[in-house]
Amino acid sequence: MGLWTAWTRGSEQHLHSEIWLPLPLSEVFPFFADATNLERMTPEWVSFRILTKGPIRMAEGTLIDYRIGVHGVPMRWRTRIAAWEPPYRFVDEQLKGPYTSWRHEHRFEERDGGTVVIDDVRYASPGGPLVLRFVVRPDVERIFAHRKAVLQALFGGGDPPAARPLNQATVSATVSSSGRGS
User: What is the reported pTM?
Assistant: First the structure.
């Protein structure tokens, strides 16, 4: 389901995910620019709902409020669009929510007659290294695995062309005992 790597540095986590979609950038970016599609790409178990009244005009500085459920505990989440560079890139950052920090960069690159969707997420969470390793990180990885499955079901595609030789069993990177990803 696409290239996937993760690493840990101190308390900060990094998730990198890529998927190639067989559509031009001009068709892919508008899907991501519509904040309501985030609900479609988020698994039901997160109980994710957008609270900001629509339509949401995406631009640098746009604030978006959500309701989520973290292991059954309802929470509010507020993000700000920190960068808006259509159709190539945008960044959302958490202002309030379940993480101590969250920065999600979305990039879009035309490649081989389609578009590669790249997600780079850097985050940290409360609760210490065990909570991070055994609860938060697996949850984030499951959310992005679901996201990729939804995108593939909606648009087709899969691994970015340069990454196709990778064995699917190597998609998730492991974290060594030193705390650095492989």
Answer: 0.82
